[in-house]
Design brief:
The structure is a single chain. By secondary structure, the protein is an alpha+beta fold. The protein has two domains: about 1-30; about 30-255, Sandwich (Immunoglobulin-like), CATH 2.60.40.10. The protein has seven helices and 14 strands. The termini are far apart. About 35% of the residues are buried.
Length: about 260
């Protein structure tokens, strides 16, 4: 009887150790973007970086009615046609979104379709790598254009792109200005310290992406460091208040914090 109990206990301990070993191996496994050249990323891997990676969050809004308030619903979206890409962003400090519209582009909102926004750290290398590879896979760029896009100089700016994927009034978004968004747009660190917007590039006709530029350094020091632990991007676009949190520890890319 005692022997049976010991045998069962050994099996339980052995199973637990195996589970811990497998869990540890999974935790230590590097993401593909750490090990593969971006030019080798598959379409599925590109989609993952652009929709389900540490540098991307999404927010959708179900409209109660056209006059009533919007109800935010946090979600991860399926892949969508990006309006960002190589060959069109300026190499200077204020890059412009690519004037390219998805096939379902419409000017006004569909009341039956929840508004969906994708918030990306556009200045982060993995995001630009994914956009460059997407253009290469779709035949919209050559290797030199892609490499120039990935390595473009964004000056002293952290760039957040907000992609209006669906369900928005694009005419309303086109009319936004820096003055209109400034009061409600910040990068907020865990200690509640706020980083104010420096520049704003609105969407233009045929595009669904707007860019929010924040200073990368303040008084000669990095505006965001790993010790800040997390940063929340907030803004208001019409009746939609966007708020997305990012964990900085997860945003380390090849040994350094990539913003």
């Amino acid at each position: 009887m005692i022997l049976d109990k010991w045998t069962r206990r050994k099996k339980f301990i052995g199973g637990l150790l195996t589970l811990l070993a497998v869990t540890s191996a999974i935790a230590l496994a590097k993401a593909f973007w750490e090990e593969k050249a971006y030019t080798q990323w598959t379409r599925k891997e590109v989609e993952r970086v652009l929709t389900d990676s540490p540098w991307v969050e999404s927010q959708s809004f179900s409209e109660v009615n056209m006059e009533g308030p919007a109800r935010p619903v946090m979600s991860r979206p399926p892949g969508e046609s990006s309006a960002e890409g190589p060959g069109t962003a300026d190499s200077g400090p204020a890059p412009q979104p690519t004037p390219q519209a998805p096939a379902d582009y419409t000017r006004g909102p569909d009341p039956q379709t929840p508004a969906l926004y994708l918030v990306r750290w556009f200045s982060a290398k993995p995001v630009r790598m994914a956009l460059a590879q997407s253009a290469l896979l779709n035949g919209g760029s050559d290797p030199k254009q892609a490499e120039d896009f990935v390595n473009q100089d964004l000056g002293n700016f952290i760039v957040i792109s907000v992609h209006a994927a669906r369900g928005q009034d694009l005419q309303e978004l086109e009319g936004l200005t820096k003055a209109a968004v400034k009061a409600d747009t910040f990068l907020i660190k865990k200690n509640k310290e706020r980083l104010e917007i420096a520049e704003f590039n609105p969407i233009s006709r045929g595009s669904r992406t707007m860019l929010f530029l924040f200073p990368r350094t303040v008084d000669g020091k990095p505006s965001i460091i790993l010790e800040d632990k997390e940063v929340r991007f907030v803004t208001r676009l019409g009746k939609h208040k966007i708020s997305c949190k990012f964990k900085l520890q997860d945003m380390i890319f090849r040994g350094q914090l990539e913003l």
